[in-house]
Amino acid sequence: xxxxxxxxxxxxxxxxxxxxxxxxxxxxxxxxxxxxxxxxxxxxxxxxxxxxxxxxxxxxxxxxxxxxxxxxxxxxxxxxxxxxxxxxxxxxxxxxxxxxxxxxxxxxxxxxxxxxxxxxxxxxxxxxxxxxxxxxxxxxxxxxxxxxxxxxxxxxxxxxxxxxxxxxxxxxxxxxxxxxxxxxxxxxxxxxxxxxxxxxxxxxxxxxxxxxxxxxxxxxxxxxxxxxxxxxxxxxxxxxxxxxxxxxxxxxxxxxxxxxxxxxxxxxxxxxxxxxxxxxxxxxxxxxxxxxxxxxxxxxxxxxxxxxxxxxxxxxxxxxxxxxxxxxxxxxxxxxxxxxxxxxxxxxxxxxxxxxxxxxxxxxxxxxxxxxxxxxxxxxx
Amino acid sequence: xxxxxxxxxxxxxxxxxxxxxxxxxxxxxxxxxxxxxxxxxxxxxxxxxxxxxxxxxxxxxxxxxxxxxxxxxxxxxxxxxxxxxxxxxxxxxxxxxxxxxxxxxxxxxxxxxxxxxxxxxxxxxxxxxxxxxxxxxxxxxxxxxxxxxxxxxxxxxxxxxxxxxxxxxxxxxxxxxxxxxxxxxxxxxxxxxxxxxxxxxxxxxxxxxxxxxxxxxxxxxxxxxxxxxxxxxxxxxxxxxxxxxxxxxxxxxxxxxxxxxxxxxxxxxxxxxxxxxxxxxxxxxxxxxxxxxxxxxxxxxxxxxxx
Lengths: 381, 307
Hints:
The structure holds 2 protein chains of 2 kinds. By secondary structure, chain A is an alpha/beta fold. Chain A is built from 12 helices and 14 strands. Chain A has helices at 39-56, 72-84, 97-109, 122-125, 141-153, 167-178, 198-207, 219-231, 249-252, 272-285, 291-309, 315-324, and strands at residues 8-9, 26-32, 61-67, 90-92, 113-116, 133-135, 158-164, 183-190, 211-214, 237-240, 260-263, 335-336, 342-354, 357-370. In chain A, strands 7, 8, 9, 10, 11, 12, 13 and 14 form an 8-stranded mixed β-sheet that branches. A 6-stranded mixed β-sheet of chain A has the order 1-3-2-4-5-6, with helices on both faces. In chain A, α3 (97-109) links the parallel β4 (90-92) and β5 (113-116). Chain A starts with 7 loop residues before the first strand and ends in an 11-residue tail after the last strand. By secondary structure, chain B is mainly α. Chain B has a single domain (15-297), classed as ABC transporter involved in vitamin B12 uptake, BtuC (Orthogonal Bundle). Helices cover 74% and strands 2% of the residues of chain B. Chain B has helices at residues 5-36, 43-61, 64-85, 95-117, 143-165, 167-177, 179-184, 189-212, 222-236, 241-267, 272-297, and strands at residues 133-135, 140-142. In chain B, α1 packs antiparallel against α8, α3 packs antiparallel against α8 (189-212) and α9 (222-236) packs across α10. The longest helix of chain B is centred in the N-terminal third of the chain and has 32 residues, at 5-36. Chain B is globular and about 65 Å long. The interface between A and B is large, with 52 and 55 residues.
């Protein structure tokens, strides 16, 4: 099951002629889920990263890809091997927060950078923040907070909320409630990987809620939305890009239409970098990129920008180069806060059928220049 | 949020429906174990194949029912092929060898499926005739879930007739009791084993295809169900179809009602979101607790096959 890809690329900034840019390629280890139910998301993470390297050209990065099988212990072993045998200077790629919680502390303890293209569990954004840990996606709560703010501002006063029982699930419901002004009609934690939601849908039906908020990434979301569509319950669903993103929509079909969800990015995000990215991704892989692919593409460009500016062996200089975030994000404005998590805009999107493809269309801004609430607990300047 | 009669009724239906799908899965598993003494971990992969071929068949023909036939047939064919090429060499080996070999089959079938169908989940929808809900008086209920209950009961009846009333059934039962003797009596035991294995695979494939319409058709979808199916046959008594039926209903109802009621019970004396988290965690353990109790009180299960 191991998949190992070596791909060389270089920063466009080679032309700057800095000493760092002429050094040997920097080894980046990408650990992600390429087998089992999470394989679709992992494939998007890998493909987004490789696309950025290909588009940049050159050989600044030596990329090593391995499959974590969505198992924390396996991810930790791979990380150690990448650091000790492959001499990786930077690790990235993990999708699931429970894996990130197992891997990230041990990686940074070995004086190696970790740049997250997805998982942003709250402990790592707050008291557990670390100079070598960066998140190029979001802190876990962020998108859910935007959905909560939207629900409250759009007349929803009694929302039923549902998420799997694992770190990102608790972050999701806590995040939703943080900016939601209405009451919670019911709150359910489901099993991670649960496939049947009949018992939960029955409770939603009986709850008298005026809206349902779900965080069910990957196959869990597909199962829920299909069963919800067959249940006759017509309470509107609001969610985030993780549940009704491009990785899931083709399998959900009509069951997902009109669902309003939040995301810092959408395929139609209006900027030149994004148009180039979406066009190139479609041309290279024959499908529309998901939000995961966009985050991974940004992660690669962030790392490339730092390699162009500093030598990775000089941890302080390289850290400063990463913090500068001197790259063009496909989501638009991007800056790091003190905890090295993004300060960014979050948009509301809606699932629509456009040109025969089911996809998300941006509705408008939900929260602007938003920094996660855990940054205050991080002692880094 | 009050617990109304309508809600309890709907949850009971959900539990029964879930149980009957588990029955389709465990019937094949228990049959194969009972007749051949084989632990087949790859049973979940056959379930996955059923779902994938149903989705592919339905997408190609635009007809769910043709997809259902394709899924069941593909799982049966894969089962027969696996029996002839791999499983046949394992009957005389011990259970550890069987576990290792069939675990390897899981990896091969999962990666093979990913290579053929890609890493993204497939689209499969409920057929139009079974979509929507029907009013059951107390509550509206999904027509498709009612149909799943019907399918489960029909298969149970069919299996009961097959095992109890036909010549093939007599041979299967004889094979469970004394394989050397029925071979000596001139029954082609190799063909019988292939047939039984294919039948078990077809049941798994049928379950996968039926459930695939309301779940995510993705690589690895079979393993969580496989674990539940093992719980079912341990509770019901390994090798017993009747035990699988009773065990499946017990697991289906207890799992559903536990998920529904435990958080509410905790919510009476603790904060709602903590109660929900703790209740969910305990609900996911509940069926294993039941299994442990059954093992303590009746170590051979509720309906031991060789009592």
